[in-house]
Amino acid sequence: MDAKKLAMVLAILALLPVFVVLFVDAIYAEPKYEDFCNSSRYYYPEKVGVNCTAMAYDARVDQCYRDGGFAEFKYDEDGCQLGFDSCNYCGKEHNEATSKYNRNVFFIILPVGLVIVLIGIYLTIDYIGAGLMFAGLITMFYATLRYFSELSKLGRALIILAELLLIMWIGYRKISGKEDKPTRKSKARKRK
């Protein structure tokens, strides 16, 4: 492969996955922490020179943290904690929304990557087809990474197995398949 074709493969390999990810992000935005949690209300520093008394133990605080929330407290005008006020689950809600978003992105981007790979397999211009195949695989890899931590151990193994089988099929279909098929040049050489 000459330098121009290699440059084309590398350009497709780099730009197409970035385009897919940015396009999906533009039409389907990721949940923002600020939409769930207003961080300005959580901490009230003590005034300089004020001596606050320690707050008594409250089991509701421990329960709040065990449930995935964080405790909010009542404060006096000097910034001293008066006691437990409520349990805020905004962080937990944000994590749940982000988890759902990552799952949806996985199911959007993975098929797009697969289609890109298939187009690359059947494209007759080899260097563009190779670039598309690499770009499709990287796109699929990105989709997998987005959702990987949310999957069970078995789910992770099955997704990686499916992608490995796909790569092996591509190798068989695109690389081995070409070596097995006689070309016009190889037929002409055999005649001589």
Task: Lay out the secondary structure.
Elements (H helix, E strand, L loop, with lengths): L2 H25 L31 H8 L3 E6 L5 E8 L1 H33 L3 H23 L4 H28 L3 H8 L1
Antiparallel strand pairs: 1-2
Describe the structure.
This protein is mostly helical. It has 2 domains: 3-32 and 96-182, no CATH class; 34-92, no CATH class. Helices cover 65% and strands 7% of the residues. The chain has 6 helices and 2 strands, in the order H-H-E-E-H-H-H-H. Strands 1-2 form a two-stranded antiparallel ribbon. Helix 1 (3-27) packs parallel to helix 4 (126-148).
Keywords:
mainly alpha; two-stranded antiparallel ribbon; 2 domains; elongated; about 190 residues; single chain
Supply the helix-strand structural class. Answer: mainly alpha
SSE pattern? HHEEHHHH
Proportion of residues in β-strands: 5-15%
Q: What helical percentage do the residues reach?
A: 55-70%
Could you list the spans in which at least 5 consecutive residues all have pLDDT below 50? none
Gap between N and C termini, in Å?
27 Å
Please list the strands of the largest sheet in the order they lie side by side.
1-2
* CA-based gyration radius: 28 Å
- List how many beta strands DSSP finds: 2
Largest sheet: 2 strands, antiparallel
Multimerization state: single chain
Number of helices: 6
Overall number of domains: 2
Give the overall pLDDT as a whole number: 84
- How would you describe the shape? elongated
